[in-house]
Amino acid sequence: MTVTATPPAPKLELPPLKLGPITVDTPVILAPMAGITNSAFRRLCREYGGGLYVAEMVTSRALVERTPESLRIISHDDDEKVRSVQLYGVDPVTVGQAVRMLVEEDRADHIDLNFGCPVPKVTRRGGGSALPWKTDLFTSIVRTAVKEASKGNVPLTIKMRKGIDDDHLTYLDAGRIARDAGVAAVALHGRTAAQFYSGQADWTAIARLRETLPDIPVLGNGDIWSAEDAVRMVRETGVDGVVVGRGCQGRPWLFGDLMAAFEGSDKRYTPDVRKVADSVYRHAELMVETFGDEGKALREIRKHMAWYFKGYVVGSELRTKLAMVTSLEVLRDTLDQLDLDSPYPGVDAEGPRGRAGSPKKPALPKDWLESRALNAAQSQDISAAELDVSGG
């Protein structure tokens, strides 16, 4: 892997991130992403740099019911020092049961609650980024989860968005409630649910939350595409650490860049096509180990191809073949057809990746915005509103 130098920057005077008994020396967190942050991808990222690597989001109900997929999602490699799990749920009882299971069965060292997902199938049930609008429900879930997690001295954190839209912001109220409930940290994605991933993340809101909650760690998320972005976020907002999501898709080496930048080093990874191809193949091999099914693993790796080769000189015919690989043998043969000596393309390989979507009216339960409290009908619906699989 080629490592090049950029203009040197002073070392960030940022202490290690403390989450209860856990110390994260490099205050960088891999955001949980459905279908992305499985044990294979987490291993790739860990090999480049330090941080906290969170598994894919799992629904509380599925976990309590011990579905095979939910148990796969929370599985960790033996050498993962901190086993981090993110839960999604809309029912305090079910969320509490899921946290209790993780703690009593020693399945997690850190638990995060998802209040940031903007996907319609989640928000239309009152979950994800829609949930903090209902103050009583949000408070009940967080308090219950913290109580259960504390029985095993497992730190519990939350990740949220600014609110549903610009007219229904929730992040300051939710941050105070979470702090008072005893969470170990709060992470804020500087967008509303209505923005989805479009537009620009509002780092000013992240700074405001940092000022509002001076007594617990606050983490910033949104538009971190490079190590320089992360450094700039810390300096502009005063956060205690950063959460990286789409910026590392197809770029597990970003965590090496982040660790170097936070330490004041000017080293950055600039892989040529050969190194990218090697990473893709290793990713696929690890996926086979993760799923125990070569066909499924190769179907899963296909969506990573465009991210890995963003900006690189790869013909349309080869890109199409890479997006249709069916086995490790076919993958290896296709990768070998690339111009493996082609160099790192520079800025073309960097910047935003993945689909940003467009602003849209969030899908919400009936009459959700009429009050900050649940009405009788909404309370009745909540108990049966959990999804059976990971929400995205």
Terminal-residue CA separation: 32 Å
Low-confidence stretches: 387-392
Major sheet: size, sense and barrel closure? 8 strands, parallel, barrel
Structural class, judged by helices and strands?
alpha/beta
The shape, in one word, is globular
Précis, in short:
The chain is α/β, with parallel strands linked by helices and 392 residues long. The chain has helices at 39-46, 60-64, 68-73, 92-104, 120-123, 135-150, 171-181, 203-212, 227-237, 254-262, 273-291, 294-301, 305-308, 316-322, 328-335, 376-382, and strands at 3-5, 17-19, 22-24, 28-30, 52-59, 84-88, 110-115, 156-161, 163-165, 168-169, 185-189, 218-221, 241-244, 267-269.
Description:
The protein is an alpha/beta fold. 37% of the residues lie in helices and 15% in strands. It has 16 helices and 14 strands. It has helices spanning 39-46, 60-64, 68-73, 92-104, 120-123, 135-150, 171-181, 203-212, 227-237, 254-262, 273-291, 294-301, 305-308, 316-322, 328-335, 376-382, and strands spanning 3-5, 17-19, 22-24, 28-30, 52-59, 84-88, 110-115, 156-161, 163-165, 168-169, 185-189, 218-221, 241-244, 267-269. An eight-stranded parallel beta barrel has the order 4-5-6-7-8-11-12-13, surrounded by seven helices. Helix 8 links the parallel strand 11 (185-189) and strand 12. It is globular and about 60 Å long. The relative contact order is 0.16.
